Amino acid sequence: MKKISLSFYALAFLFSTLAYAEDLSSNSLEELMGMESEAKAVVGSRSGSRDFLNSIVPIDVITNSQIQNSGQKKLTQILSYFIPGFNSPTPAIKDGSDHVPASSLRGLNPDQVLVLINGKRLHTSALLHVNDTVGRGTSGANLNTIAVASIDHIEILRDGAAAQYGSDAIAGVINVILKNGNYTNSVSSKIGMNLDGGGESAQADLFYTVPLDYDGYLNVTADVQTQNKTDRAGIDTRDQYSVGDTGGSKTTPLGQPEATNYLLALNSKAYFDNDVALYTSGILNYQDSSNNAYFRTPKDVNSSLYPNGFLPNIKTKMLDYSLTAGFTQDLGSGSSWDLSQTMGSNDFHYYVSNSMNYSMGTASPTSFDAGGLSALQAVTNLDYKTKVSDIKVAMGLEYKYETYKIEAGDRASYAQDSNASAGSQGFPGFRPENEVATSRNNYSIYLDLNYNITPAFLVDGAVRFEDYSDFGSTTNYKLALSYKLHPSLLVRASGSTGFKAPSLGQSHFTSNSTTVVNGVLSATGTLSPIDTFAQALGAKALKAETSEHFTTGFVYKPVDNLSVSTDYFYTKIKDRIMLSTDIAKSAQTVATQALYTARGITQARYLTNAVNTQTQGLDLRVNYLYLLENSANLSFNGAFSYAKTKVLSFNSGANGLAASVLEKNRIENAQPKDNLKLLFNYDLKPINIALNVNRYGAFKDVYNSQVYNFDAQWSSDLDVSYAFTKKFKVALGGTNIFNSSPDEWPNVGSATTGSIVPYSQYSPLGYSGAYYYLRAIYEF
Amino acid sequence: MYVKYFLILLLFIFPLSINAANSENEIKAAVLGKLSHFVKHKSQINNDEFIITVFQDETFAKLLKEKYNNKQINHKNVLVKNVQAMEEINSSDLLYIGKVPQEIQYQLIEYAQSNNLLTISEESGFAQRGGIVQLYFVSLKIRFKINLNAAKKSNLKISSSLLSISTIVKGETK
Question: What digits encode the pLDDT tens for the residues A504-549?
């Protein structure tokens, strides 16, 4: 019965649309100027841009008007708003991970997504997520370093593409295209706050374009953002001054950090004779951000320096930039060349205040420079496209040079001057023995062929060879096919291999950190897998993760205003890199215990090629647009994603991971498997209403090897704007406007989990609740 | 369960009239016909048909033939020609220039001006180089740049209503 009724609704839905095809020639010029053309994307094929109905691989495009109407001012928020399966939780009390989002696609890791700006590789963050968050053991690109006002549109390829773009393109590729010279200058501002207190924020941006000859342009975007903390912590049930004195008050804030961001973006193109063009693009982000570690109770502190305990403050300062410059020349007849150089860098520095080094007693300073991390990536690309007979040929060379550096903090931030805990509480500084300055290079060569066997049958094949100076070489392949069964129906399939090179951070990061395990503070050392100490525990030098992909689906566009696509995907990944479990000193031989003692730690861990997984699922997209009689537009975008990851096996060197419920859960269940988005936009000039109804599926978290379920969560975002003139618009809006909250932890008997921290750190929507804002934009 | 609610929701929101999410080429094709209404030839063109000549862009020419089959522009039946060389252009009302090297573009513009043709293209810098109407897309919406001097050189008069919704471009001074 259920099947029949579903079929009825589906048929009724299709028939309701089939009757309404129209001829554009009946529209006036003004009506044509008001229509949005179907978005096109260049990512996924080097043979030129393609629209929805002709895309050989599944691609989503977020358009400029969608970005504007959403009211969102951070790139992670925009992708979360529009793309099902994009996950960017906002953990707290997780050291550096509070300040750099760990964003992922399809439930995979943040470093299994390749990010491009104008088609050029964006470097990853220097920060390696090492705490108990999504993306533990990985470094992804920091998407929030890109000023949103500089963006023309965003392309998201939902397919493996390492054979085209190289490392990291396993879960997909995000290609951010910056505005060209056709946009007008604008200033905009946004202020807002959270319903339940805190989170006050202010943002302002300027987009300014200078026209150059022959439609060349020089665009500059400046963006300033400030936000206050939110606090959604529970009460602290730990003994405060003495045994049995539980206090029962809030001691540790839990929520988004206090942050100030300064962002700049540049995009330019200058045309010269002979179809030569010089282009540049760049981003710059300085972030000053702070959040807290757990409150240190007076009982634990036991120092006259802080008779009432103290709340360590961890401040991070991040400087990030990427700059690309290149020449391109159109040689005619489908031929062109492109030579470019990209340089990107991320510098991430820790400072700790309102803290102390227990081992220094009352001589301890209260503020520390805890050291920092930096990563640099320089990429040289030479690409050539041509047509040989009817075959579109793209080929190219890439040379990449990377460096990674850890800088020690000041002595007090790591010193151990007595038998008490060493280093600044909250975040112990990097030690001189943590310092590293390493580099590697790699070169690659690729060939991409694109051929219409018949007008309806398209084949795209790619092969790419890479050689890395540290772990060796890899060759990857891709074959994609599409066939138009009917002018309105395209079927497509692709198969490819891929890889993710171990980052220099994964191979060389070492640190000491203070974590809370079952309510007890303990010092944990993260070791490099090439460290002899780590290798004594079973570590080996990291090798690349390798992957196999298959996707198949169809695009159906029965009438101009309706398109539907469905794609099944399968991704198998071998040798996924993970942090090992914390290996306790007490379980080791006396000789190995001495190594722990020498490093001042009681637990050790290292990165290892640990696990083989498969991820499969389904993506569904429905796009619908219509014009009401009063010239209003109503558009609807329905998007659904389902991705299920399963551990196939753990490798023999995966020290303790195979038995870890926590780590297996992080791979399989820490991120929602399903995500539904229903986006409506009603445009009745001068009013525009954007509504996003969003459902994140259930996920699971683990405490003390016990798995707990957290139910699916619905939320709604609304933005209502009014254009007072063609150039001036004001909007009121909110995210999670009905203030939905994620499930709370049950009572697990922990002083932190379920007490100070009521919510799971995996919560995809965070836990700061409803946020309301007022924004304005003026074009000039 | 959710699928059912989703489909019911779709049924409720679907309207009785539509707008189109068309490709750029479809919108450009429709716009070409409309633009012709806003451009008047000062000198008489004696074609019995309204001739659109597409230089080199075969895909777009094919689409235009499909869209203007049995259609009229300025009360004339439309003939769409696709040519690969300048010598094939002959008498036309509108010359659409696809992606060609700058040198060829200059030659085509010169030819069009001496033959009083309305030139349209989407190529960067086209209007500044002496083309009359340059099409471009901003936020997926079509817009126009118009070189008035170039129109005058081709003996064309462009209506003020079109100019009011276009960006006016000064041509090259060289």
Answer: 999 999 987 765 455 565 778 889 999 999 999 989 999 999 999 9
Flag whether pLDDT at B7 surpasses 50: no
* DSSP state letters, A19-52: T----GGGS-HHHHHHPPPPPEE-TT-TT--EEG
Q: Is B91 on the interface with A (CB under 8 A)?
A: no
Question: Taking 80 as the threshold, does the pLDDT of residue A54 lie above it?
Answer: yes
Beta strands in A195-236 (DSSP E): 201-212, 216-227
- Residues with Cβ < 8 Å from B160, sequence gap 6 or more? none
Determine the residue of chain B that is closest to A31 in CA distance.
B19
How many Cβ contacts (< 8 angstroms) between chains A and B? 164
Strands B141-146 and A120-121: unpaired
Asked if B7 and A10 come within 8 Å (Cβ–Cβ), the reply is yes
For residue A700, the model assigns a pLDDT of 96
Least confident of A281-285, A544-548, B38-42, B81-85: B38-42
Which residue from A minimizes the CA distance to B72? A25
pLDDT in tens, A462-479: 999 999 999 899 999 999
Residue A332 contacts B, CB cutoff 8 Å = yes
pLDDT at A408 (0 to 100): 96
Rounded to a whole number, what is the largest CA-CA distance in chain A?
A: 86
Structure-token pair, residue A200: 């006050």
Q: Rounded to an integer, what distance in angstroms lies between the CA atom of residue A266 and that of residue A83?
A: 26
- A64: closest chain B residue by CA: B139
Model's pTM, two decimal places?
Answer: 0.92
Q: Which chain B residues are Cβ-neighbours of A331 within 8 angstroms?
A: 101
Q: What average pLDDT does this structure show over A620-644?
A: 86
pLDDT at A123: 97
Domains annotated for chain B, with CATH where assigned, are 2-169 (3.40.50.2300)
Q: Which residue, among A173, A187, A176, has the nearest Cα to A222 in the 3D structure?
A: A187
Question: Residue A563 forms beta bridges with which residues?
Answer: A623
Q: Do A625 and B140 touch (CB under 8 A)?
A: no
The four Cα atoms A355, A358, A360, A365 give a dihedral, to 10 degrees, of 0
Tally Cβ neighbours within 10 Å of residue A271. 19
Q: How far B59 CA sits from the closest chain A CA (Å)? A: 11
Strands B133-138 and B141-146: antiparallel
Pseudo-torsion of CA B116, B121, B126, B130, nearest 10°?
0
In this prediction, residue B89 has a pLDDT band, given cuts at 50, 70 and 90, of confident
